Amino acid sequence: MTKQDMGKRDTTISICKALGIILMVITHSGSPGKLCAFAYEFHMPLFFITAGYFFSLRYLNDEATFIKKRIKGLYIPFIKWSVIFLIIHNWLFKLGILNEKFGNIGGGVTHPYSWHQIQQNLWNMITAMGGYDQFLNGAFWFFRALFVASIFYLVLFKIGDIIVRKVIGTRPNTNIVAVVVCVAALALAAWKTGEGLRVTNLIQGGYREIMGTFFFGCGFLFRQMRDRYKITWWMTAIFATTTLLFSRFASSSMAWNANFTQFVNLPIPAICGFLMTYNISFWISRNNGWIKRFLTYCGDNTLSIFVFHLLAFKIVSLVKIWWYGLDYLQIGCHPVIHDFSKDDWFWIPYTIVGVGVPLATNYLAGKIKLQTKSPIK
């Protein structure tokens, strides 16, 4: 890609993903409850929507290529990093980063693994995309949810295409099929949450995967209508206000154990939150400057933040331990040190370090890789 091509690149979606990943880190940082509630309404649905945005109809007749891309982009990174953290799990206890004295705010702690538990977790990783460390890899559910949701969307789209074609007697408009698939996903989610059902062969029961399928479809539909979509400040304000009102009076999230009411409350603010973020990202992308460059790089490298932000938090936890004179083993608190978290502003350095350290490490690793490459003769 030439510099001219890079200059023409539309960075809106990358910036959108960057804002989403920053919001994810903020929700894990011990930030104020109202801010978290607002972010929970849309920050994870946003990633399914942006993934669906890039779904191509050519995959309907080339399923193997699509599945290979999903395996390469989601399954393999999940296995790679889950296994690495599994290998160092017991070693982290020697450092105190994980310990049996401090854990999550509910009092739960993690323990060293026996050889049998290590093997079982490895089996769970390979066969069910589970078994990952809940304290250091808590965001890893997203890999499984998007992997399943994207493939499920492809399957439903092919089925929907056949059904709609038989009903109307001709090849249907792809947007009609996409709407049918989204409605089907919502119906499945309503049935699941209304009856308290579980998809037993999916870890956490399948709610995130089903809702992920719906939001994936929303992203595909948005891409089809993008040229007719008008970005205005007043609509952005309406989207923001709608999301805020839901967060205050009818809050929801993509929690794995959502009930029917939480399911009903999710789609509208999630879509409004995405559109708000997209509009803001569009405006940022139109102006050259360090903010655009940083957010574009951040959005293009969300994987490093997903994988390492909770581990990076430990750096700030060390500072907080020194600041308040706390027990060193509180470094094991998940996701952040709970003492004074409702009164201090440590969520800000947690956020800065949770985003900045993984990105800086990723940047330096890229530089080193380039410098160590042998020149082509």
Can you describe what's shown?
The chain has helices spanning 3-8, 12-28, 33-40, 43-53, 63-95, 115-128, 141-168, 174-195, 207-225, 233-249, 260-265, 267-285, 290-300, 302-324, 347-372. It is globular. Helix content is 69%, strand content 0%. With 377 residues, it is mostly helical. Residues 1-6 have low confidence and may be disordered. The protein contains 15 helices and no strands.
Gyration radius, rounded: 22 Å
Query: Overall 3D geometry?
Result: globular
Strand-residue fraction?
under 5%
Our measurement of the CA-to-CA distance between the termini, rounded to an integer number of angstroms, reads: 21 Å
Secondary structure: helix percent: 55-70%
Number of extended strands: 0
- SSE-based structural type: mainly alpha
Let me know the largest β-sheet: none
Order of helices and strands: HHHHHHHHHHHHHHH
Average pLDDT for all residues: 93
What low-confidence regions span 5 or more consecutive residues with pLDDT below 50? 1-6
| Number of distinct helices | 15
